[in-house]
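Why should sequence recovery work at all? Because a backbone constrains its sequence more than one might expect. Tight turns favour small or flexible residues, buried strands favour hydrophobic ones, and helices have their own preferences. The token representation captures these environments compactly. In the example below, the structure is given first.
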């Protein structure tokens, strides 16, 4: 890039600021819609994760029920085996020992039956949660679709102008040296209104509205060096002449 004069640099910055301000206006028309769309997408992802979790938990509970049922069958087999053995015992000690084994298996069966009942209750609870989540997911999908359609309409209305401005912005950015462009970008990002390059209006900075001394205003008019506001750091590109109305 050829060496530019200070005046040319300031003109390039003013042009870039003008383009960015127009782009900001386009974005402002969209309001909170882009953020609302992102929030709804995040909410939907949360619901889908919750559904996957519930379904996985139901599968695990169903597997545990199968295991408990198998355990009951094994206990039944053992009880039957022990009862057969009791018929051939030789003394009370053997009979009592086998009876304790039978009682132990019966207790195991009771525990398994209790666990099955608890698991079935949990499955019913999870199914209710899935039903609620499915409903919320369906409603939020409708909301998201409506918001997306609304945003698409607004974007389509300004899309041509936005594309044009972005091309102009790319071209304008190339006219500014990297160091100065970086400073400009940092200022734009620091302020909510996105103003990095402003004029002096009625003796005050057009960004923070603090007074700019007359001597400094003279230096700005000369455009021999880049001057920033001593209060907010914005680049002061020019001094606007305001004609005062004289009251008779």
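From this structural description, the recovered sequence reads:
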């Amino acid at each position: 890039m050829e060496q530019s004069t200070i005046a040319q640099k300031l003109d390039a910055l003013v042009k870039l600021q003008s383009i960015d301000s127009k782009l900001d206006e386009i974005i402002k028309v969209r309001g909170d819609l882009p953020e609302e769309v992102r929030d709804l997408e995040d909410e939907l992802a949360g619901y889908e994760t919750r559904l996957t979790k519930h379904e996985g938990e139901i599968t695990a509970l169903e597997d545990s029920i199968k295991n408990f049922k198998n355990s009951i069958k094994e206990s039944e087999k053992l009880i039957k085996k022990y009862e057969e053995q009791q018929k051939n015992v030789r003394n009370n000690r053997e009979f009592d020992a086998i009876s304790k084994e039978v009682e132990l298996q019966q207790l195991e069966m009771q525990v398994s039956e209790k666990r099955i009942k608890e698991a079935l209750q949990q499955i019913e609870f999870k199914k209710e949660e899935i039903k609620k989540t499915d409903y919320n997911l369906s409603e939020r999908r409708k909301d998201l679709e409506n918001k997306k359609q609304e945003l698409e309409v607004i974007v389509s209305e300004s899309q041509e102008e936005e594309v044009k401005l972005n091309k102009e912005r790319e071209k304008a950015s190339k006219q500014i040296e990297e160091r100065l462009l970086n400073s400009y970008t940092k200022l734009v990002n620091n302020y909510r209104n996105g103003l990095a390059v402003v004029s002096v209006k009625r003796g005050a900075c057009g960004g923070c509205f603090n007074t700019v001394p007359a001597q400094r205003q003279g230096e700005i008019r000369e455009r021999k060096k880049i001057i920033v506001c001593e209060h907010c750091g914005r680049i002061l590109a020019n001094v606007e002449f305001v004609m005062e109305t004289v009251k008779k």
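A few observations help interpret the result. The radius of gyration is 39 Å.
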